[in-house]
Specification:
Blueprint: H1 7-73, H2 78-107, H3 114-131
Helix pairs in contact: 1-2, 1-3
Length: about 130
């Protein structure tokens, strides 16, 4: 028996279509993986900034407390009191500014994987549209 004319061409067309589908799927997967890596790096930087602010706040508050104790200890000396009072106010004020900044940043939700999930949702929507013409 001989093969029907065009059946060999149909196999080649199917092979090419499957190959193109695989290449497209691989490219989409690569793009999504790159997006995930970018989001993880952004979250890492955000967490490092939070830690830096927390350390700075702790430092300023600790120095402010020490300065406050020294201020009380030498309360009756004329010129030095004003200097220590200013330094104490500066360090405690700086510490509170960092605490406020930390609270504001912690109140904002993390953006980790938000863009990736949105892109995957868009891909799923496009695929559903193609299934139901």
């Amino acid at each position: 028996m001989s093969a029907a004319p065009g059946s060999e061409g149909g196999r080649e067309g199917l092979y090419v279509a499957l190959k193109n589908l695989f290449a497209t799927s691989l490219a989409i997967g690569k793009t999504r993986a790159e997006l995930l890596v970018t989001e993880v790096e952004e979250e890492k930087l955000r967490l490092m900034l939070l830690w830096a602010k927390a350390i700075a706040a702790a430092f300023f508050l600790a120095v402010g407390l020490v300065m406050g104790v020294i201020l009380v200890a030498i309360l009756f000396e004329e010129q030095r009191v004003a200097v220590f009072a200013t330094a104490t106010a500066f360090f405690i004020g700086g510490g509170f500014l960092f605490v406020v900044s930390l609270r504001r940043q912690l109140a904002q939700p993390s953006k980790l994987f938000r863009a990736s999930l949105a892109e995957l949702e868009e891909d799923m929507t496009l695929l559903r549209r193609r299934e139901h013409p």
